[in-house]
Amino acid sequence: FFVVMALGQTKDPLKYVNEDGTTEKDTSVKAEEKHITYFKEGLKLIDSADYKGAISQFKKSYKNKRDYYEAYLKSAYCKIKLEDYNGAEKDLELASQYGPNDFQTYKLKGINYFLMGSFPDSKTCLDSALALLEEEKIDDAEFFYYRGKLMFAGKSNKKALEAAVVALEIDPKYYDAMKLKCEIRFAAKEYPY
Which pTM was predicted? Predict the structure, then answer.
């Protein structure tokens, strides 16, 4: 176990530990590919819920390739998870500047604005995401969950319930969507459900 930990990759995915204990950069990785290596490391950290570590890797990624908008999107996602909504907003603006305004960008902007309490901005972004979702035939339970939460906050219970139902059709085990559905029915005084 100790030998495995002592040899091989360090925390920096582009540095390796030699048998003699020295570290060196992996010269086989081309400069233009460094951003992808850091990006992949960030994705691994997201999977283990290490959002701060992932943000660090995404920063390295977009420092190596300034216009790598995917790194800004994932960084924003991590910041949303850490409740750093202003930081996420900055990353999302850079993602919009460097990349296409695609479904994922509008969805994350809409979620971030919702969590910031900026409901009109959230609605604008989520409506734009909805148009792209329908055009590209994307199934995304999280999108419908937040759309439902937005409608519920705006007292549009019928539309909120429809969105929660769609989220549960996509992912029947989506606990937050189940909870939202119950909250909507309770607010509408639909107790038998």
Answer: 0.79
